[in-house]
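Before the break, one more example. Copy the sequence into your notebook; we will annotate it together after we see the structure.
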Amino acid sequence: MLDNKKGITLIALVVTVVVLIILAGVSINAVLGDNGIIKKANQAASVTKEAEVKEAINRTILEFYLTNDYETLEDFLKAKAEDGSIDSVTKNADGTLTVKKGEYSVTVENKTNSSNGSSSGGSTGGETQTPEITIGEAKVVANSDGTGSAITDANSVYLGNTLYITFSHSITGGTTIVDKTIPYAVTANGTYTFTVTGTVNGKSYTKNVSVTVNQFKDVYEYMQTNTKVTYSDGEVWIPEGFKVAEDSASTVQGGVVIEDKDGNQFVWVPVATLADYKRTWYTGYDSFSEYSEALPEDEKTSVERYKGFYIGRYEAGDKESTVAKTLRSSNDVTKTVTIKANQAPYNYVTRTQAESLAEGFATKQGYKAKTKLVSSYAWDTTIAFLQKVNSDYGERSEGNYREIAFSYTDITGASQTKSSSSSVLIPTGQTTPVCNIYDMGGNVWEWTTETSSFPGYPYAVRGGDYLCGFAGEPAGYRKVISDGAYDGYGFRLTLFM
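Here is what the structure looks like once it is written out:
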């Protein structure tokens, strides 16, 4: 038998060697592997180096705010690149600057030194974020205080209205103001630009805000239906087939003028309640008791519904006489009636003829609305409307009267001067209007539908003519007369929807 020997077997030795090899591999990987100690140490060194370089760049940028020698950060950094503090500075397409030192770079916003001009960016250099102005959603509303739902539909509000642009604005850590008062009033379509200025720590930042307004609908286009338009001081109904004239006032009291496709013009007279549509004694021949007229039912219905009516802007004119460059001189009622400036007054007509011409005008023009010879209700209500601008217009009207001197254009188009001692009949629209209405006082007496109980003189005319005195026969003056045709007698139309 063999003797027992002490020591390790071959198998044990092999196992031991294998274990040692494994342990050695693990140790080597821990030191040299992708996540090894050496690599991690190198990465840490790289991060530290990067941080040191970026810190050095930031310190360099910070110097910019401590000097007054350079207008912009770009100029300053270019100088620093030249003296070796940094390697280079590059201006990017978006306006930012890339600052490079060694193998590292930092991208920053270009700045303006507040010591040399207004600041356009943040208070520090480097990678500090510029304070941002925040703009809320812009709205166009109907309320002057900016409240209410936004009006989003294009062409939904008629010109003559006022809309308001509003939006919120803020900046973190500071305050903001706008170069226009918000809500901002607008009366026409277009693009409106606002500059919002924010202030943080004494430095200013700006942001432009553009708002496009397309909500207004053109009142200078002919209406397809009777259309209500709201002005700052009231509402006006535009009849079908009419549009607002280019030279119309922008307020009701100023005189809203409409015109048809031939250029005939009327002015809106507002009537708050039917009780305001009334006859009034201003001044005249004899007494008010001598004159009478029942309220025409068609006028009552229209005025009550639409809260107003239209009166001719001018005395009725004769189109053909104007073309012929001569004033009318005979009782010829075959001529075309116009309601325009620079026309020969349609004189030499009887009251009966004037009424017929006025009522037939709408049919000839193709109106859906009705035209009439002016009633005493319409005349006196118009005088009351004019007196809101000229308080004594009914009793003292300065139109084409005998003793009034003024310049005018005659029927041939030549400029003339009327002296205070002359009497001359002139074309329509040559004197000074009140609320866009011409010659209710002076030029020609105007037939009305009012009647008189004075024996032999059954009709009433208003307003005096070119032979009268302005103090004696003003716009409100009433006169009784028979049904005759004279050179100083014409008429005026009214229009009712």
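Residues 134-217 form one domain. The first strand starts at residue 88 and ends at 91. Try to locate both features in your own notes.
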